[in-house]
Design goal:
alpha+beta; Rossmann fold; Dna Ligase, domain 1; D-amino Acid Aminotransferase, Chain A, domain 1; globular; binds adenosine monophosphate; binds glycine
Length: 445
């Protein structure tokens, strides 16, 4: 099978490794890929891996490439091509209709593309989430009045995609009023904040659950937690993610049963019943909230994403033992129930290293040393490129991560840090406390 994978981050490098591992995968093209996927060319004997200089949202270029290279399956990494309707584009072109596109339709992608759409969907299907209301410039005064009925902190969300910056959590009513006005009246996030969702603040621990759906049937992938803030102790600015661990121990079988019954089943069923069956990965961002009456923890949906998480994929995918190409083929054919999902019982810890200054201004083009010295762990490239001489250079804020599988989380973390210490570049930074909050939680129980 010839497969085209769209994207260039650590998520895509981790996905590329799983796809290339499949005996079914003859050619794997990654567009545009990074130095990590470029280096795969030499490591996957049976599978030919190659980067392609093509952007994931350039549908006409993808169209020609798919025809010319006889592509059987397109796997979509990031959300942008999905929100722009790549799935529908393929369905509308007679020459592309047979190609298996792994990712939801434009309509389903609204679950990530519009917060209001996602909230209304959850409301229709009784899926637990924070109470909310949506406002526009015309209803700004009602929005301000609504803020007065809530308690601090205040959660304001730009409706559309705002490069991960559209959610504001504000400690005072004055700031919330000011920001709501800036979003609605002054287009603080452009078109994305033409509508703003105001919602109840949920206090708890966040985790990510991933679901592979064929429209009707589903498989729940291992749980994971990512670390979004730049600074240790979850301080400082939000980033794309500074590390991840899988599984999340407190998400035990009782908690996951609630997730499945209250969230996964109504989501997959709800989309099916509404005539928009979802084929692809669903990322459910959850808040585990303590119920003061029962003393148990309950899951609430914070957000849906229509793709895998990054850097969660870098700790979740290495734990999947099943043939990924086989699973995705079943997704396309709508018979996922006929396969099994086999998970490696070992635990995974991923630590991301970033460029100095990230998530604000940072420099690119720094030579990276020591990658080949890493052994017994996996290195996934995120923002890297290879120069003409084969040197690997930094080419983004999040540069690369090291993932280790081990029999316990402390072991996995220790080894990831030991191996990451072998790698260096000018200005390299990483958090040293990935996973520590969860380990402390277990000690305090
Ligand atoms: P989102 O883009 O919806 O994932 O929001 C970004 C981050 O804001 C989340 O990862 C949470 O940490 C936080 N957040 C979003 N909604 C809420 C909420 N209702 N209560 C508490 N924190 C929230
Ligand atoms: N790690 C969070 C995300 O991929 O959005």
């Amino acid at each position: 099978m010839n497969i085209l994978l769209l994207g260039s981050g650590g998520r895509e490098h981790a996905m590329a490794c799983k796809l290339a591992d499949s005996p079914q995968c003859e050619h794997l093209y990654v567009a545009p890929g990074n130095a990590g996927t470029a280096a795969m060319a030499n490591h996957y004997g049976q599978t030919i891996v190659q980067n392609v200089d093509m952007q994931p949202t350039d549908f006409p270029a993808i169209h020609s490439w798919v025809i010319k290279h006889d592509i059987d399956m397109v796997v979509v990494g990031p959300e942008a091509p999905l929100v722009a309707g790549i799935r529908d584009y393929f369905a509308e072109q007679p020459s592309l209709r047979k190609v298996m596109v792994i990712g939801p339709s434009r309509e389903c992608a609204q679950l990530e593309g519009s917060k209001d759409y996602a909230k209304e969907f959850m409301h229709r299907h009784n899926i637990p989430t924070a109470a909310y209301r949506t406002f526009t410039a015309d209803t700004l005064q009602e929005g301000i009045a609504f803020l007065h009925t809530l308690k601090a902190p205040y959660v304001l969300k730009a409706d559309g995609l705002a490069a991960g910056k559209g959610v504001l959590i504000l400690p005072t009513l004055e700031e919330a009023e000011r920001e709501l006005t800036a979003m609605l009246k002054d287009a603080k996030f452009g078109e994305a904040s033409a509508k703003v969702v105001i919602e109840e603040y949920l206090s708890g621990i966040e985790l990510s659950v991933f679901v592979l759906s064929d429209g009707k049937h589903y498989k729940i992938l291992p749980s994971a937690k990512d670390y979004k803030r730049i600074g240790e102790g979850d301080t400082g600015l939000n980033t794309g993610g500074m590390g991840s661990v899988s599984p999340v121990h407190f998400a035990d079988k009782h908690f996951m049963k609630k997730v499945e019954e209250r969230i996964v089943i109504p989501t997959v069923k709800g989309l099916f019943q509404e005539g928009t069956p979802y084929k692809g990965f669903i990322f459910v961002g959850l808040m585990a909230v303590s119920n003061h009456i029962t003393g148990k923890i309950d899951p609430y949906v914070i957000e849906y994403n229509v793709r895998m998480g990054d850097p969660e994929t870098e700790s979740v995918f290495p734990r999947i033992k099943s043939d990924m190409v086989d699973l995705l083929e079943h997704v396309w054919r709508g018979n996922l129930q006929q396969t099994t999902l086999e998970i490696d019982p070992r635990e995974a810890a991923c630590v991301m290293a970033v460029a100095n200054g990230y998530p604000e201004h940072y420099e690119k083009g720094k030579p990276i040393h020591g990658i080949n010295a890493v052994s017994g762990s996996l290195v996934f490239h995120a923002g890297t490129r290879m120069d003409d001489k084969g040197n690997v250079l930094t080419n983004g804020g999040r540069v690369l991560c090291v993932t280790t599988l081990a029999t316990s989380m402390p072991e996995a973390l220790l080894k990831s840090y030991q191996e990451l210490a072998k790698i260096s570049w000018d200005g390299m930074y990483y958090r040293r406390d990935i996973g520590q909050d969860l380990l402390k939680l277990e000690v305090s129980k």
